[in-house]
Write a structure and sequence with these properties.
The structure is a single chain. By secondary structure, the chain is mostly helical. It folds into 2 domains: about 200 residues, Up-down Bundle (Alpha-lytic protease prodomain-like); about 120 residues, Alpha-Beta Plaits (2-Layer Sandwich), CATH 3.30.70. It is built from 10 helices and 3 strands. It has a 3-stranded mixed β-sheet. Helix 1 runs antiparallel to helix 2, helix 3 packs parallel to helix 5 and helix 4 runs antiparallel to helix 5.
Amino acid sequence: MKSKSHVKDLKLASFSSVVIGIILLIFKFYAYHITNSQAIFSDALESIINVVAGIITFIVIIVALRPADKDHPYGHGKIESMASTFEGGAILLAGILVIIQAVQSFFHGSQIQEIDSGILVVVGAGVVNGLLGVFLYLRGKKYYSEALKSSGLHLLSDTLTSVGLFVGLLLVKFTGLQWIDPAVAVIFGGMLSVTGAKILLRSGSILVDAEDTETLKLLVDLFEKHYLPGVIQIHFTRVIRSGSHHHIDCHMVIPEFWSVKEAHDFSEQFEKKIIEDYPVEGELHIHHDPCRMKYCASCELANCPIRREAFVKREPFEFEEITAPMKSITSG
């Protein structure tokens, strides 16, 4: 079960995102009102997405934290990836709208006013977004929350665009060239579109359970750390990420002379050690494959009654090995 501090951290992080997002939204639209800057308007328009996404993230995290039940045997964590997909799509759409608005402004012209006030708002918003983005991303990474990680990356991209807006407004101020403002807005819109597309691709890959190399490499280390004689070989390891709950299954080659009870008790002990060391809540299910007496040279199990060859050397677990399909390992 998730600890109380885990739940509290996730809720606090998502709620903070909403509150700060609303405050920044108000300041950005105020800055647009007094400056008439298309670049600032595009930033303010994107902040609406921040607030909506923040509210959705807060609701989604509360739902995702609910335990598995009869109707949802694998829990509710997938809803986080659904929320990230929505956020990515919304950011991509906002980026396209910003580009359209900026192009129209470029050809029709616009006059910026009170640039100094606009610069102050942009710098302040950039600093706040940067700090909040780092906070959300680190919390999301710690608890494997895709919703928080997406929000954090989104806000960090906002920080980079704030730097661009700052430079653009300075150039307008010191050169008097008004076309720089919509040009910066177009660049800003392009960056938004790229960020949205990246979030869409990542969340989409999780929804269809694409291979997660980082998590599988972690499992390689855990399998090696908790190795016991009798774990002859592990392959066909797969992970289903459901929010901050992971479902892991693998095939384990074990001595073929073990009884069902011996195999069950052994794998249950192994599963428990892996999950205790796993960074998030999860479960590990092991499918047993008999050794067929062809792993003798790499099996260091003592007193084996069916050994055909002497033990030579045990190779440590490798990524390619634990992820290999069953046929490539057990055939031949």
